[in-house]
Amino acid sequence: MATVADVGDEPGQPPALTALSLAEAAQKAMPKEQIITPFDVSGGFDEQGKPKAIDYDRLVDTFGSQRIDKPLLERFEKVTGHKPHRMLRRGLVFSHRDLDSILNKYENGIPFFLYTGRGPSSDSMHVGHTIPFEFTKYLQDVFNVPLVIMLTDDEKFFHTPKLSLKDVYKFTIQNAMDIIAVGFDMKKTFIFADTSFVDGGHASAFNTNVREMGKRTTINQIRGTFGFNDSNNIAEFNFPAMQSATAFATSFPFIFGTDPKKVAKIPCLIPCAIDQDPYFRQCRDNAPKMGFLKPAIIHSVFLPSLRGRESKMSASDADSSIFLSDTDNQIKKKVGKAFSGGQDTAELHREIGGRTTADVPFQYLTFFMEDDEELERIREAYERGEMQSGEMKQACTKELQAYVKGFRERRKAVTEEVREEFMRPRQLIFKGMPGEKERQDARQKRIKVLEEELQQLRTED
Predict the structure, then answer these.
(1) pTM of the model
(2) What is the pLDDT of residue 440?
(3) Where do the DSSP E strands lie in 377-440?
(4) Cβ(242)–Cβ(210) below 8 Å
(5) Buried b (16+ CB within 10 A) or exposed e, 134-146
(6) Cα–Cα 20 to 30 A to 278, which of 25, 197, 328, 373?
(7) What element of type H or E holds 159?
(8) Is 359 helix (H, G, I), strand (E, B) or coil?
(9) Coil, helix or strand at residue 271
(10) Distance CA 59, CA 44 (A)
């Protein structure tokens, strides 16, 4: 990308105008720190006004999380008996809070559950959205535990002025079907949309936890964590309590049982992108005050934008993203325009090699190519200049086309009936699930509540 300093003066341009233009450019080129929140992701800008790559090491220090290091990966493999996922092996899932505690509990036979989610902002997800879900599926398969997926349609409605409730509901239905196509086990997975769940009659315990969390969260905490000000609406200030409540097993008695003392001890592990961490810092601060365990968290990096590592893929910017609905030809064209770490000429590239750390197609291969040896061969060939940028883009295109094709085939099998079952409040099947007597008692209590509501409606008639 050319900067002001790279652009020559127009012939005959007055010197005063040139100097003025340069002075104005110098004033505009102010350094800007990176910002990572659930609503804004940017690596910032340097003194010359050039965008910078996201600094994940700095995020670990700023957020106060811990790096996932080699000893922790070795312990993960020993405890689970499974090879770490490629995203763990390659540092793409890179940071955590209390993952070691979860491994200790699993090793001692103590059950836990997984929780992740998505804010439905468009009707088609892109491949960057599937990263946390694919990794979550791996965790579900490895640990054989229940999973709760929260679709925050209310958050998107609150935070995005142009979206109506009708819009976000439509997005929610389509996103739910996309998420199901990742391959989750229906018997162990409950998906819910905030609006329909809260209004649907099964959210009494959930709402209790929302209120308890909301009472313990101050306006100043929300301002400091999310950067909100007086222009943010009151619903946005309240929403973090909603997202926190899902981290507590007592919010879902139809899954985990109705014994509050027993269920409150069930731990939670949240796989998410690092921009969601602010929500769960608030949650972890207040959980002990509510008598709950702090949820453990495991963070992934962002899949870079097609334009470069300075920002992530965005559903609102079609040219920055590979969508799960893209055709093979669209994928090929988009990858062909992706930011390259190659040199300006083929000769120079052969002489000094390419930069895999800056090359977006190579970065995509690190996310989606399973074969470690082949990925290393490509890296070495590119950095030695033996592989040109065009060849790198071809390899990336092939991998992404195969990934999206596999998704499309699975997506065809996701019917409306399948979606409804995933989103139906129900007992999940897992080790440590409530006993039959407890489930029967819970059903009878539920029937009694419904009968009372029905009787009240008849009385009103």
Answers:
(1) 0.86
(2) 62
(3) none
(4) yes
(5) bbbbbbbebbebb
(6) 197
(7) helix 153-159
(8) coil
(9) strand
(10) 13
- Beta bridge partners, 126, equal 323
Strands 113-118 and 268-273: parallel
What is d(CA 301, CA 275) in angstroms, rounded to the nearest whole number?
9
One-letter amino acid of 131:
I
User: Which residues touch 72 (CB under 8 Å, ≥6 apart)?
Assistant: 96, 99, 100
HSE, CB side, 13 Å, CA atoms: give it for residue 142: 20
- Nearest alpha-carbon partner for 152 in 176, 128, 131: 176
User: What's the pLDDT at 33?
Assistant: 84
Number of C-alpha atoms within 13 angstroms, CB side, residue 136?
Answer: 31
> How far is Cα 51 from Cα 42, in angstroms, rounded to an integer?
8
DSSP string, 35-57: EEETTEEE--B-TTS-B----HH
Q: Is 227 left (phi over 0), alpha (psi -120 to 50) or beta?
A: left
pLDDT at 382: 96
At 126 the three-state DSSP class reads strand
Burial of 88 (0-12, 13-18, 19+ CB in 10 A): buried
125, 127, 130, 135: CA torsion to nearest 10: -170
For residue 190, the SS3 value is strand
Q: Which amino acid is at 176?
A: A
Q: Which of 288, 225, 277 is nearest to 56 (CA)?
A: 277
Q: Are 203 and 197 in contact (CB under 8 A)?
A: yes
Facing residues of 40 across strands?
37
- Chunked into runs of 10 residues, the chain (461 residues) has average pLDDT values of 40 43 52 82 82 88 95 97 97 97 95 95 89 95 97 94 93 96 97 92 94 94 90 94 96 94 96 93 93 96 89 80 94 95 92 94 96 97 96 97 96 97 95 63 66 74 65
Minimal CA–CA distance to 354: which of 397, 377, 388?
A: 388
- DSSP-assigned beta bridge partners for residue 191: 149
What region, left, alpha or beta, does residue 81 occupy, with left being phi > 0 and alpha being psi -120 to 50 degrees?
left
Rounded-to-integer distance, Cα 227 and Cα 220, Å: 10
Q: What's the pLDDT score for residue 276?
A: 92
| CA gap 422, 192 in Å, rounded | 8
Show Cβ contacts of residue 68 under 8 Å, excluding neighbours closer than 6 positions: 88, 91, 93, 94, 95, 96, 99, 298
